[in-house]
Please model this.
Amino acid sequence: MLSPHQGNMLGIARKAILPFSLSLILAAALAFSLAISATFPLEVRAQTQTEDEQTQTQTQTQTEDEQTVTAIFNERLTTGEMYYLLEDLCKNIGPRLSGSEGAERAVAWAKEVMEGYGFDRVYLQEVMVPHWERGDPEQVRIVDVEGGMIELRALAIGGSVPTAQTGITAPVVVVHSLEEVEELGRDAIEGKIVFYNRAFDQTVIGTGAGYGGAVGQRAAGPSQAAKFGAVGVVIRSVASNFDDAPHTGGLRYLAAVERIPAAALGFQSADRLVRVLEEQPDARLFMHLSSKWHPDALSHNVIGEIRGSERPNEIILVGGHLDSWDVSEGAHDDGAGSVHAIGVLRTFMKLGIRPRHTIRAVLFMNEENGLRGGIKYAEVAKETGEKHLIALESDAGGFSPRGFGASVDDDVLERFRSWLPLFPQNTISYINKGGGGADIGPLRRETGTPTIGFIPDSQRAFDYHHAPTDVFEAVNRRELELGGASIATLIYLIDKYGLKDEMAQ
Ligand SMILES: [Zn+2]
Model:
């Protein structure tokens, strides 16, 4: 397929022919048609003509595409409508961890918003979700230290069991990896609180990789420490910021290992603990967590769609997750993705873009501590045999758009890349091979649906991720809307041109 740039060049070449005089053209045409009848069999001539027509169509279409893309960006940047929708979600619903009252209010809110926009179909998909509550504010302090005690800022890691009601007090052993716990062994670990002090690697430019390099201590650290007799765990928050806001997140207890309480410390609190332990290795840590596990609760994925005009049974999914951690408004994670998804349908309707395929916005429940919404959605899609052309997720924040990652065949990737010149001012400057999102991963695994992940700028993402600072004020209106416009543009192009030539699909 031609890139728009190549297409434009052909367009210019065609226009350059026009100044020729009529007689010259007629003479040339006559000579050419005589020559072509003599030289080529009929099929080849037919093919030549078709290619010529195609070129003409493409030239016209690209102009149309440029106009549509401009209209999408203009609509978003002038109205800021999704930004104000995000404000409503953050300020009037707020935190919405699965199983909480906030999550149920968010479900009702999302359904009402989509119905209010007049989408063709809006419905809820039932899903049972885990229900964990943080309880009273966490207390973590260094005790037995000269001059009294030092309070540290901490958050229970999501899913942590509570401490005893009176708290626990124990000596601390500092480690930097899961392997180090094993190397130290039971003699060094038993009866202690293990402090995982692995820092976010500041030298990694893409912060997702920095996060990935350190998140193991949060997810797997507690069970690893418990295997060797630890009574509790604290970690340095897996985050890129240097303030003292602690960052929560999920953990995974191993079934056969005792469940011990675990908390994440703010960056400066972790530094403070390191300094104290250097001078007074016998200093002890006090922890009090009052978290609680409840039985699974009924919740919902919220789904809205515009029915396709030509291929209504082929779905293009655009999604984000509606749940958030309990300590923040979940503005970037993933209120931004939620309004990005709704915004694609909203913008299409406002601009009168009638999609060929069914465009479906899915706001998944429970990405943060269970992924039950994504798993349920994939199960239902498999059972009902629904065909998804492709699924895109936005779950990397409402920051300036940069690119997409796409888990698609190479020829499809090339087609996507040929559209890059249509994104104004390099709003989207690359499309990587490989990408998706946590919620659409099960759909890919269960049904083979290709997936795309939206990639915004990552430099501030892990300053806010899972922290109390992830609030509406941390989102910039233009950046959020540019991201939404970029996603809407890609969905528009996929809907119009498909993944492959349709005869081959
Ligand atoms: Zn998220």
User: Anything to note?
Assistant: The two ends are 16 Å apart (CA to CA). The chain has 16 helices and 16 strands. Residues 321, 333-334, 367, 395 surround zinc ion (CB under 6 Å).
